[in-house]
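Methods: example folding runs. The two proteins below were folded one after another, and each record is reproduced exactly as written to the output file, sequence line first and structure-token line second.
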Amino acid sequence: MSTMTKNETLPRAARKRERTRGELVAAAERLVAARGLDALSIDDITEEADVAKGTFYTHFEDKDDLAAEIGRNIRLELEDKITATNEDVTDAATRMANGLSSLCAFAIMQPVRARALLRLIPGGVDPDTPINAGIRGDVAMGEKTKRFTVASVNAATVATIGIAMSAGMRLSDETRRVPEPFAFAAEVVATALTALGMKPTEALRLAKTAMDLRKKELAP
């Protein structure tokens, strides 16, 4: 049985092109995470990737084109993870705990990529933007099924997004690491659930269960 990857089946020139593109994306992820997009130049990115400046333009139109790919790739990876975790889960509170715990675990385990994503999210706090459809859907489901008690779906979605983004930035801060990140993440998830109207004891139970599962999934 063949074990060749997709890239290995490509011609040598195409494989080299894919490697170079990947190096540019990885370099930009590191720089965006550290300094933000606005502070970067194409020269910065190509120097970090150790490629010629002209090479950049064979892969991307401009810095914004590269940034869009970075944000899209990381977002889709995280969304796929959350979708798989919530497959067949019909309880809104459990879905929310799973989604928030997945984001927190991602920030803990992949801090550079997490910071890059958080810096590149377009319309990050807009409750109607497509990237927030999952959170909004779970808030609406929770309100309908009486699992959550909120002033409005929009307000609750914005508040939950704010908690998620703040937690992601804090957990991915490598200069001042959280001493017990998974325990702290569970407290953040519990706080978000409590803000949605759940009783603190149940919120903390769900949050701890979700974070324990994420930690177990990451164990070697």
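Second run, written to the same file directly after the first:
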Amino acid sequence: MKDVYKTIKGKGVDEVLINKSRFIGYSAPIDSEEEALEFIEEIKTKHRDATHNVYAYCFGEDSNIQRFSDDGEPSGTAGIPVLEVLKKEDLRNIVVVVTRYFGGIKLGSGGLIRAYTKGAKIAIDAGLVVDMTLHVETKISIEYTVLGKFENYLMTSGLKAEEIEYKEDIVFTLFVEKSKIDGFEADVLDITNGQAVINYLDEKHLPLIQGKRV
């Protein structure tokens, strides 16, 4: 997976009424195509009485898996517009289902495209778009004498300690953006006069909004 990719933080749901038709947009982040299919089936079961349950999803490092369904709407007026929203927003590892309850007024092809585009957009916004950014789990052992300076550095840098162990030295566990590791290491060694012991562990994608953890 790339160092940074866009998806949503969690499941989202929102709805809109368009010419008496009710459109309910659902979204969810996914870790596999199987998860996408399970989510779609969940929404279909929940809204088995709906007129249509249209869906689209993208999965993979380059969104190489892309699927959609019009679920009975005229070809090109539902599933593709939902998929196009995902592509335009450059989202991946995401599934969106837009449920429609027909309100008695036909929308026409253009109206359907706009309605399903709107349904997808509100679903995505409800799920909260984030930049999934590759971080490195880092353990740092420092002496007690530099604790104040190190904590001040974490605060000014916007870094958050996940765990602090008070042993012979103090061991901090935190996640550092992979792209910033070199600068981070140089800063820590400068603060601790080269005495810090730094160990890099697993890599993990974590959600950021405007550069801040959420």
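Comment on the second run: The CA atoms of residues 129 and 205 lie 14 Å apart.
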